[in-house]
Amino acid sequence: MPHGGEEDSDSRLVYPDVGGLISHLGFDDPAAAFAWQAGGGVIWEVTERLTFDVGYRFFQTDVIEQADTTQFQASELMFTLRLYEPFRGLLR
Fold first, then answer.
1. Distances (CA, A) of 73 to 22, 56, 57, 61, 69
2. Kind and range of the H or E run holding 23
3. For residue range 49-86, what is the model confidence (pLDDT) as tens digits?
4. Is the pTM here over 0.85, yes or no?
5. Of 40, 74, 87, 92, which is least surrounded by CB within 10 A?
6. 47 in Cβ contact with 34 (< 8 Å)
Protein backbone atom coordinates (compact mmCIF):
# COMPACT_ATOMS: atom_id res chain seq x y z
CA MET A 1 0.00 0.00 0.00
CA PRO A 2 1.91 3.12 -1.14
CA HIS A 3 1.52 6.37 0.71
CA GLY A 4 2.85 9.84 0.11
CA GLY A 5 2.35 13.47 0.78
CA GLU A 6 3.41 16.99 0.14
CA GLU A 7 3.08 20.02 2.37
CA ASP A 8 3.84 23.73 2.15
CA SER A 9 4.34 25.80 5.26
CA ASP A 10 5.77 29.02 6.59
CA SER A 11 8.75 28.13 8.77
CA ARG A 12 9.45 30.55 11.58
CA LEU A 13 12.44 30.77 13.86
CA VAL A 14 11.12 31.66 17.32
CA TYR A 15 13.37 32.12 20.33
CA PRO A 16 13.13 33.71 23.79
CA ASP A 17 15.50 36.61 24.43
CA VAL A 18 16.93 35.33 27.71
CA GLY A 19 18.66 38.17 29.53
CA GLY A 20 19.08 40.15 26.30
CA LEU A 21 21.63 37.62 24.98
CA ILE A 22 19.87 37.13 21.63
CA SER A 23 19.64 40.90 21.04
CA HIS A 24 23.29 41.28 22.01
CA LEU A 25 24.27 38.75 19.33
CA GLY A 26 22.38 40.73 16.67
CA PHE A 27 19.33 38.50 16.35
CA ASP A 28 16.74 41.11 17.33
CA ASP A 29 14.34 40.48 14.42
CA PRO A 30 12.56 37.14 14.01
CA ALA A 31 13.34 35.30 10.79
CA ALA A 32 10.78 33.70 8.48
CA ALA A 33 11.12 31.69 5.30
CA PHE A 34 8.96 29.53 3.06
CA ALA A 35 9.35 25.81 3.81
CA TRP A 36 8.18 22.69 2.01
CA GLN A 37 8.38 18.95 2.42
CA ALA A 38 7.58 15.89 0.34
CA GLY A 39 7.57 12.24 1.21
CA GLY A 40 6.38 8.81 0.34
CA GLY A 41 6.66 5.20 1.30
CA VAL A 42 5.40 1.66 1.18
CA ILE A 43 3.63 -0.45 3.83
CA TRP A 44 3.79 -4.26 3.80
CA GLU A 45 1.28 -6.28 5.78
CA VAL A 46 3.40 -9.08 7.29
CA THR A 47 0.50 -10.62 9.24
CA GLU A 48 -2.99 -9.46 10.17
CA ARG A 49 -1.55 -7.58 13.17
CA LEU A 50 2.00 -6.75 12.02
CA THR A 51 3.08 -4.27 9.31
CA PHE A 52 6.45 -3.05 8.05
CA ASP A 53 6.71 0.52 6.73
CA VAL A 54 9.55 2.09 4.72
CA GLY A 55 9.28 5.84 4.16
CA TYR A 56 11.28 8.81 2.96
CA ARG A 57 10.82 12.53 3.66
CA PHE A 58 12.68 15.60 2.35
CA PHE A 59 12.32 19.02 4.03
CA GLN A 60 13.77 22.34 2.84
CA THR A 61 13.46 26.03 3.65
CA ASP A 62 14.19 29.01 1.47
CA VAL A 63 17.12 31.22 2.41
CA ILE A 64 16.79 32.79 5.86
CA GLU A 65 18.65 36.08 5.98
CA GLN A 66 19.69 37.25 9.39
CA ALA A 67 23.21 37.63 10.79
CA ASP A 68 24.26 34.81 8.46
CA THR A 69 22.47 33.70 5.33
CA THR A 70 21.25 30.17 5.88
CA GLN A 71 19.20 27.51 4.12
CA PHE A 72 18.07 24.36 5.94
CA GLN A 73 17.29 20.99 4.42
CA ALA A 74 16.92 17.48 5.81
CA SER A 75 16.38 13.98 4.44
CA GLU A 76 14.89 11.15 6.49
CA LEU A 77 14.69 7.46 5.71
CA MET A 78 12.32 5.74 8.16
CA PHE A 79 11.74 2.07 8.93
CA THR A 80 8.74 1.24 11.12
CA LEU A 81 7.48 -2.04 12.51
CA ARG A 82 3.88 -1.73 13.80
CA LEU A 83 2.09 -4.24 15.99
CA TYR A 84 -1.66 -3.68 16.20
CA GLU A 85 -3.47 -4.65 19.40
CA PRO A 86 -0.36 -6.10 21.12
CA PHE A 87 -2.30 -6.95 24.33
CA ARG A 88 -5.28 -8.60 22.62
CA GLY A 89 -4.45 -11.98 24.22
CA LEU A 90 -4.61 -10.49 27.75
CA LEU A 91 -8.26 -9.41 27.40
CA ARG A 92 -9.70 -12.95 27.41
1. 24, 14, 11, 6, 14
2. helix 21-24
3. 899 999 999 998 888 766 566 778 899 999 999 998 87
4. no
5. 92
6. no
